[in-house]
Design a protein that fits this description.
mainly alpha; 6-stranded mixed β-sheet; two-stranded antiparallel sheet; 8 strands; about 60% helix
């Protein structure tokens, strides 16, 4: 398969004939996972089940043909489904309504625009601003929100609350009203998936559990005893459709599109890169952005929901020894066949079983070991993750991620405002050794009598300029005649810090103390000249500064 059209992605290249059967079989497994999960995620998003299935046809084909990753699977996933529900209910309060569905199509098209803009301007690095604590907390918060909604479906109870804690309280108070058979179907489905995963992990547990639950409900007539079934699913392939949305609604969808793309970038590019490194093939991040963009154009125009990346399905394909996008192509064909010839079978799927499948899938998104690691390594980042996890269900996904992002930014500035500093003392072989993490007022370590070498390990900017000034002036004790700033770790100086340097040099001159700087980079030397600070003596090394001090006496 080496002779190929130029537009085909690297995900199709290099598949040997001997491996085709294995890749197609992996595609059957992928379809077995995608059918129940896509229906479940569509329901989480407040959309008709067929919208989730449509996402596994044309959008999946487009991504598979254009992705540079040989394994990344594009599909609706739990975070995207929860984001769609949270964002659209803030605009239209009636999930499932015609206007709501049209907005979901428009959301996919706007996500496509954002993805393509990111690709054109090479903005994929923006995903790096979603730190691990924000991402861990955000996804955990979405999982908590999804689990709450799926619990409601398994219990077959209805809530009317608009906020998370009132909704949770209503679910608890309505436990006596839960439909027993619905609970049995949902809990039985969950138990079956867990058992199959442990005993025969290669089997498609969700599909097997769903088929058994559907057969039991259909054979025993449990749909007449409180077990809700999916109902009629339109047959046939999706048709081209332009969403009918007002201009005001298009504008209202933009922040949500950015949020969905940011989460997809952070998760999708990381997953693609990890598998590419493990399996030894290259990927192109910009090509991945284009593939996501064009896949979502296909989604928006074929009555599908927004698609992102699925780490769980990608892991399943890797475990099935798949090394190409052929499973995605196979999955798309199988779902198309299902909708064309067998859509009537889907009508008997019990909602409680689908809720159980989704619950088992999303519970893994609450990464307890990651929270424990943050608690052990850096408590401030743990609290950022916890705030984000709680903020998603309480405040809404978009508000929560903005707050968590701001908390992360504040934490970065807070740490930069108190950088590591030290005074240095001459050691063996011309080396200078750190004497203290922070200079103690009145007792600075001196490299030689009368000379203090002060190391500042951060960029100098507005948030730490005062700290720098206070610490340097605290070093001006009796007998100190020179203070040298070791600027090896200083990577930048802003205008506020430049003014502070000028004030420090002037104050030390008034106190008859020489202020000098050592080990500057070419960039910092240029900045000092630019700011008019070139009258401050510069030395290539601390040893050179020490020799100059000794020479001047």
């Amino acid at each position: 398969m080496t002779d190929r059209p130029a537009w085909l992605a690297a995900g199709i290249v290099g598949v040997r004939r001997a491996d085709l059967s294995k890749e197609i079989l992996a595609g059957v497994t992928l379809a077995a996972l995608a059918i129940p999960l896509n229906i479940g995620y569509a329901q989480i998003a407040g959309l008709p089940p067929v919208v989730g299935l449509y996402a596994a046809i044309v959008p999946l084909l487009v991504f598979a043909l254009l992705s540079s990753s040989r394994q990344l699977v594009a599909s609706p996933d739990a975070p995207i489904a929860a984001l769609i529900a949270s964002l659209l209910t803030a605009i239209v309060a009636a999930p499932g309504s015609r206007q709501y569905v049209e907005l979901a199509y428009a959301q996919a098209l706007l996500c496509a625009v954002v993805f393509l803009l990111f690709a054109v301007f090479r903005l994929g690095f923006l995903a790096d601003f979603l730190s691990e604590p924000v991402l861990v907390g955000f996804i955990a918060g979405l999982a908590i929100e999804i689990l709450t909604s799926q619990t409601e479906k398994i219990l077959a109870v209805k809530t009317t609350a608009d906020h998370y804690f009132p909704e949770l309280w209503q679910i608890i108070t309505k436990l006596p009203d839960a439909r027993g058979w619905s609970v049995a179907v949902g809990a039985g489905t969950m138990a079956m998936i867990v058992v199959l995963r442990r005993l025969v992990p290669a089997w498609p547990g969700p599909l097997i559990a769903l088929v058994i639950a559907t057969a039991v409900v259909a054979a025993t007539g449990l749909d007449e005893h409180g077990v809700t079934i999916l109902g009629t699913v339109p047959s046939g392939l999706p048709t081209p459709h332009w969403p009918h949305v007002s201009l005001a609604h298009w504008a209202a969808l933009v922040p949500g599109a950015i949020a969905i793309c940011a989460v997809t970038l952070a998760d999708g590019l990381l997953t693609a890169r990890r598998y590419a490194e493990q399996r030894g093939y290259p990927i192109d991040a910009d090509q991945e952005l284009r593939a996501f963009g064009l896949a979502n154009i296909a989604a928006g125009l074929t009555q599908s929901m927004t698609v992102g990346s699925s780490a769980s399905r990608t892991a399943a394909m890797d475990a099935a020894a798949s090394r190409s996008q052929i499973p995605s192509l196979t999955c798309a064909v199988l779902v198309a066949v299902l909708l064309t010839f067998f859509s009537r079978v889907l009508a008997y799927l019990p909602s409680a079983a689908l809720a159980g499948i989704v619950a088992v899938a999303v519970v893994k998104l609450i990464d307890v070991p990651a929270f424990a690691r943050l608690w052990r390594l850096r408590r401030s980042e743990f609290w950022i993750a916890a705030a984000c996890a709680l903020g998603v269900p309480v405040l809404g996904s978009l508000t929560a991620v903005i707050i968590a992002f701001l908390l992360s930014a504040v934490e970065v500035v807070r740490r930069a405002a108190r950088p590591a500093t030290a005074t240095l003392q001459a050691g063996p072989n011309g080396r200078y050794l750190r004497m203290s993490p922070d200079p103690e007022p009145g007792t600075p370590a001196q490299a030689v009598p009368g000379l203090v070498i002060y190391r500042f390990e951060s960029q100098l900017f507005f948030a730490n300029a005062t700290t720098f000034k206070d610490q340097v002036l605290d070093l001006t004790t009796d007998g100190v005649r020179w203070i040298v700033l070791d600027a090896e770790a200083v990577t930048d100086i802003d205008t506020t810090a430049a003014q502070t340097l000028h004030e420090v040099a002037s104050t030390l001159t008034d106190r008859e103390i020489t202020f000098a700087i050592s080990r500057t980079t070419a960039t910092i030397t240029s900045l000092l000249t630019h700011y008019g600070l070139d009258d401050i003596p510069l030395y290539d090394s601390n040893e050179a500064a020490t020799q100059a001090f000794r020479t001047t006496g």
